[in-house]
Amino acid sequence: MNKKIITIAIKVIVITIFLILSIYVGYLHFIKSQPIVDEITVDEVASPKEEPEEIKTLNIIDVDSDERSIAIMIDNISAALPHVGLQDAYIIYEIIVEGGQTRLLALYKDKTTEVIGPVRSTRHYYIDYALENDAVFVHFGHSPKALSDINQLKINNIDGFFFENPFWRNKKIKAPHNVFTSMEKLREGIKIKNYNTKLLEPILLNYVIDEFDLLERENNIPANNIKIHYSSSHYIDYEYDEENKVYKRFMKGTPHIDGITEEQYYFKNIIIYNIKNVSLNAGEGRQELLNIGEGDGYYITNGYAIPIKWLKESRTSQTKYLDIDGNEMEINDGNTFIHLQPVNQTLVIE
């Protein structure tokens, strides 16, 4: 009896061992049949990496830079053409002077422009626009009232009439339309003068990073062609380049061309508003600009224009540009031409 029980037990043990071995062999076969998987790939699938967010910045100015702006007076009569270096300016003002002509005030910041000009003398009301940009004011000469105001207001300025270091003359061009400068020479001059080089006030315009159109704004009108008269003898045209979304500039019907690059000047934004000007009693046709107060104008970008309000409270305060609801205007990232057009002169936007 015991012998029979032992025999059965042995059979059970043998069968159990056989089953265990069969299961183990099957498991090894299963493991060997699996594909080899790279551990890095497994980790990436298990924990996908997030793409870093794109950091957007303005193109027209370096928002991380605190360099002070430099405002340069530019000659603008026919004998002064071609201009050089204006494409690098982030803002340019055009304002009436005597004889129905205009001069430009070009603002630069964080640029290395090697030739700028021709540089010319200033009139007193240009000081207001250097002040509103907290800029070092650069000019070659001055009207009597401008010199008086510069001294009285203690304007940080570089006047080639007294300090010629940052300037040179191109002898192939007839004087006085042959004075030029560069950003490098101006920075050296500012250092010699021991002027502050740091930006102390916010940049004038309210630039935004994400480009916008004016189609959804109230009272928008198409602005593919613009004509701005300053007098019977001086007018400006702009044509909209839809492909590049900029405005190409013309002077008296002729493309406004850079003398070195030979490329036509273009601008992302145009601001136009009317200012009354009257003749001074001092003679020579010198003008007074009645630019403190408020009035109407237009902001133009990306093929459309909208009406705006301008407001300037004092010579030193920044001009504010407001929409019809009184909110500060947002401005597309890009260079801007600001036209202070005399009242009662023709403006065509179509």
CATH arch. level architecture? 3-Layer(bba) Sandwich
* CATH fold annotation: YerB-like fold
The coarse overall form would be globular
Structural class: alpha+beta
| Beta-strand content bin | 25-35%
Q: What number of domains?
A: 1
Biggest β-sheet, characterized?
12 strands, mixed
Number of strands: 22
Element-level helix/strand string: HHEEEHEHEEEHEEEEEEEEEEEEEEE
Give the end-to-end Cα distance, rounded to a whole number of Å.
119 Å
CATH class bucket: Alpha Beta
Find the CATH superfamily: YerB-like
> What's the rounded overall pLDDT mean?
88
Radius of gyration: 35 Å
Give the helices and strands, then pairings.
Elements: H1 2-33, H2 39-46, E1 70-74, E2 91-96, E3 102-108, H3 126-131, E4 136-139, H4 144-153, E5 157-159, E6 167-169, E7 179-181, H5 183-193, E8 207-208, E9 221-222, E10 225-231, E11 234-241, E12 246-251, E13 254-255, E14 266-267, E15 269-279, E16 287-290, E17 293-301, E18 304-312, E19 320-322, E20 331-332, E21 336-342, E22 347-349
Parallel strand pairs: 1-4, 2-21, 4-5, 8-20, 15-21
Antiparallel strand pairs: 1-3, 2-3, 6-7, 9-18, 10-11, 10-22, 11-12, 12-13, 12-14, 15-16, 15-17, 17-18, 18-19
How is this structure best described in words?
Helices cover about 20% and strands about 30% of the residues. The chain has about 350 residues and is of the alpha+beta class. The strands form four sheets. Strands 1, 2, 3, 4, 5, 9, 15, 16, 17, 18, 19 and 21 form a twelve-stranded mixed sheet that branches. Strands 10, 11, 12, 13, 14 and 22 form a six-stranded antiparallel sheet that branches. A two-stranded antiparallel sheet has the order 6-7. A hairpin with a 5-residue loop joins strand 2 and strand 3. The protein is globular and about 135 Å long. About 5% of the residues have low confidence.
